[in-house]
């Protein structure tokens, strides 16, 4: 019996292939997905990992066996799968493990219109069925099995994104893009085609073994090559995508990383101006600058927990036009509330190309505070260490505490958030202050308690 507790996470399926899951299990997941969603048709896609095509086909076989018609879009980014789910109005399954090492793979599932499937929205039920069928045998096939057909949606996806951002009048830009051997190498050429952009590709060869560096641009060591290339060529901007190309990280003309909070604020301002106001969702570790900019542009900021299911849930509840996270996930109402780093990148290119000047000058308006970045501490007792931090600040004059997601402590000149990892024995600390010295002081105070 497979131990599904190890691979079924809060928002997706992810584990080592074939040790923890394989094509036979993928076939059961396909059947369970159809049973839980009640779908008569679905769409599937996959990334460039060696195991991805076989897993996606097996999932499709399981879905078709229970009577669902399957549309395979083949190689794609995760946001391209969301596009297909939204445009075709079908539940979808994307086979990827994002930035995890090559031996991993996973499934990101959604309902029609790219609505998320997580533990509380069907994933727990899917797991229960797969566990039962793995022990008792596959379910009875439908009297009439579904069909399996292929469809290429890359050009339509690219056209849809370009239709959401006007880039027709931008000045010529030199843009370096590091795809990390991931799916950005597949999507970027189509999305940026026919724009006044000199594209300098880095690691566009699709290779799920990630021979150059891990496809996780939030880790500083993975953007070193991009930073060097931007400086070497005097480029206007650098973009780095993760393995499944749903996250985008931005580097300015100096080769310096741009905070995803600053990108969130910049895109929020543009979306608010485009829509004449609206609600913008941000999580509890984005910068103070995000709600400030939202209010300055006539919008309403709404703070939520970290994680795409919470962001998407709040967007659906509030009718928000945009949502951003400090992890470089960006969500758009015009994209079925789903996340697409590519659309955020187009907004940044448009903002930069509409004016003279540098990217660092442009984003300075949105990058207003000093931040620690996320600092991880390995601890034996997450609950006890977090409680000790809470006790230390509970009665401190001039501070406010909330526990929307972990512990957030806010004062006049600083705030910090301390959250436990769901999957590792870690506490994650983020600090922001009005100046660097204060940020460093608060960081050191909290870490001294956390690390004992």
UniProtKB/TrEMBL annotation:
Residues 6-132, 156-255, 263-369 form the Alpha-D-phosphohexomutase alpha/beta/alpha domain. Residues 374-447 form the Alpha-D-phosphohexomutase C-terminal domain. Keywords: Isomerase, Magnesium, Metal-binding, Phosphoprotein. Transmembrane segments: none annotated. CDD domains: PMM_PGM (cd03089). Pfam families: PGM_PMM_I, PGM_PMM_II, PGM_PMM_III, PGM_PMM_IV. InterPro entries: A-D-PHexomutase_a/b/a-I, A-D-PHexomutase_a/b/a-I/II/III, A-D-PHexomutase_a/b/a-II, A-D-PHexomutase_a/b/a-III, A-D-PHexomutase_C, A-D-PHexomutase_C_sf, Alpha-D-phosphohexomutase_SF. Its cofactor is Mg(2+). Belongs to the phosphohexose mutase family. This is Phosphomannomutase/phosphoglucomutase. It comes from Streptomyces lycii.
């Amino acid at each position: 019996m497979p131990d599904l507790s190890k691979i079924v996470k809060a928002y997706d399926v992810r584990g080592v292939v074939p040790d923890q899951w394989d094509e036979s299990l993928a076939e059961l997941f396909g059947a369970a997905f159809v049973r839980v969603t009640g779908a008569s048709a679905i769409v599937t896609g996959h990334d460039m990992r060696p195991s991805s095509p076989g897993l996606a086909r097996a999932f499709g076989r399981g879905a078709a066996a229970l009577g669902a018609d399957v549309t395979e879009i083949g190689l794609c980014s995760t946001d391209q799968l969301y596009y297909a789910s939204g445009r075709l109005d079908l539940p979808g399954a994307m086979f990827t493990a994002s930035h995890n090492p090559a031996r991993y793979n996973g499934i990101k599932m959604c309902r029609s219109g790219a609505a998320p499937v997580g533990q509380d929205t069907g994933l727990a039920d899917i797991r229960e069925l797969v566990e039962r069928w793995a022990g008792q045998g596959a379910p009875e096939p439908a009297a009439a099995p579904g069909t399996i057909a292929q469809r290429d949606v890359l050009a339509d996806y690219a056209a849809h994104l370009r239709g959401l951002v006007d880039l027709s009048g931008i000045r010529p830009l030199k843009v370096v893009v590091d795809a990390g051997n991931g799916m950005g190498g597949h999507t970027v050429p189509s999305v940026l085609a026919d724009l006044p952009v000199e594209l300098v590709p880095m690691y566009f060869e699709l290779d799920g073994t990630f021979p150059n560096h891990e496809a996780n641009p939030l880790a500083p060591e993975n953007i070193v090559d991009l930073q060097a290339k931007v400086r070497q060529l005097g480029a206007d901007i650098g973009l780095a995508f993760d393995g499944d190309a749903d996250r985008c990280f931005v580097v300015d003309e100096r080769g310096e990383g741009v905070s995803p909070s600053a990108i969130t604020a910049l895109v929020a301002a543009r979306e608010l101006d485009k829509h004449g106001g609206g609600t913008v969702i941000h999580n509890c570790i984005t910068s103070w600058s995000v709600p400030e900019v939202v209010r300055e542009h006539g919008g309403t900021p709404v703070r939520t927990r970290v994680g795409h299911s919470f962001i998407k849930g709040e967007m659906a509840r509030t009718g928000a036009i945009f949502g951003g996270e400090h992890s470089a996930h960006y969500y758009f109402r015009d994209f079925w509330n789903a996340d697409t780093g590519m659309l955020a990148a187009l907004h940044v290119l448009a903002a930069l190309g509409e004016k003279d000047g540098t990217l660092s000058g442009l984003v300075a308006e949105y990058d207003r505070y000093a931040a620690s970045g996320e600092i991880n501490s390995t601890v034996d007792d997450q609950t006890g260490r977090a409680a000790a931090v809470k006790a230390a600040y509970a009665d401190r004059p001039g501070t406010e505490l909330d526990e929307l997601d972990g512990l957030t402590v806010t004062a006049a000149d600083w705030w910090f958030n301390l959250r436990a990892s769901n999957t590792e024995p870690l506490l994650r600390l983020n600090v922001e202050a009005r100046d660097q010295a204060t940020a460093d002081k608060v960081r050191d105070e909290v870490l001294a308690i956390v690390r004992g």
